[in-house]
Amino acid sequence: MEREEEDSVSELLRDRFRVSTISIAEAEAKRNDMEISGPVMTCIADLAFKFTEQLAKDLELFAQHAGRKTANMEDVILSAHRNEHLAALLRSFSNDLKAREPQSERKRKKSSKKEDQATTSVVHIPDS
């Protein structure tokens, strides 16, 4: 029963993702005075969904490799390593976000990272 619910939720998300992708593609086509056929729209939506699934898997692996349970911006940038232009845009976006962050937030985060590093260097719990 639980698996059926999970499958229906996944199908609902996939359908919503497809509708959103098709809507974006239609808007871009209209903005550029182009027409895109239905089968091409469906193909674009399927490719975007498959890309997103792979991206999610990559982000999970990058975070696991770094010993974290959550993905962060560095993982997202790393996932774009095959596309230099995209990676550069993501780095720029990340830097813009960091620049907008209040100074007190940045200082607090840096000190908490140092504390985390000190804790992890002292205590080591091996995985079984």
UniProtKB/TrEMBL annotation:
One of its GO terms (cellular component) is FANCM-MHF complex. GO terms for molecular function: chromatin binding; DNA binding; protein heterodimerization activity. Pfam families: CENP-S. One of its GO terms (biological process) is resolution of meiotic recombination intermediates. InterPro entries: CENP-S/Mhf1, Histone-fold. Keywords: DNA damage, DNA repair, DNA-binding. Gene3D superfamilies: Histone, subunit A. Residues 97-128 are annotated as: Disordered. The keyword DNA repair applies. Belongs to the TAF9 family. CENP-S/MHF1 subfamily. This is Centromere protein S. It comes from Prunus dulcis (Almond).
